Amino acid sequence: MSEDKSLSLKHENTRVRRDRRMVSKPNNMKKAIRQVFSLLKDYKLKIFITFICALISTSFTVIGPLLIGRATTVIFDGINLMINGTGTIDVVTLSYLLFIAAIIYVISAVFTYLQSWFLTQISTSVSYNLRKK
User: Fold this and answer.
1) Phi, psi of 16, rounded to the nearest 5 degrees
2) pTM value?
3) Residue 10 pLDDT
4) Which of 34, 71, 123, 132 is the most exposed place for a label (fewest CB within 10 A)?
């Protein structure tokens, strides 16, 4: 602990991490944020597409369990009808709900993949550009 204090006295914006590497903070945070955004300005379209993919993926991920819940209700109602001897499980409605749920989960997975792909493209390009500088 005394070692960390002596290091922080020598370098006021530098700390030692657990793995003993030096970590420094920027002197001017606003300037550092502006520099990061200036690095990302060339990727506005990809960032926008990534954001849209995230919205669509999240929306479909939320809708999927709702359909599964309705399918469970159809099964429960069918079992109650079977117990009362007045009917059976509505297989047509059940299969329709499960089919739509499967499609929604596939669409969600595709947009999650696209989101990851765009983020990887952006981070790889930014890292490459930083190394070139």
Assistant:
1) -105, 125
2) 0.69
3) 47
4) 132
Give tens-digit pLDDT for 56-83: 999 999 999 999 999 999 999 999 999 9
- Residue for token digits 């520099």? 35
Whole-number Å distance between alpha carbons of 64 and 98: 9
DSSP string computed for the chain: -HHHHHHHHH-TTEEE-TTS-EEE--S-HHHHHHHHHHHHGGGHHHHHHHHHHHHHHHHHHHHHHHHHHHHHHHHHHHHHHHHHTS----HHHHHHHHHHHHHHHHHHHHHHHHHHHHHHHHHHHHHHHHHH-
Q: For residue 114, what are the CA distances in angstroms to 4, 44, 61?
A: 43, 16, 15
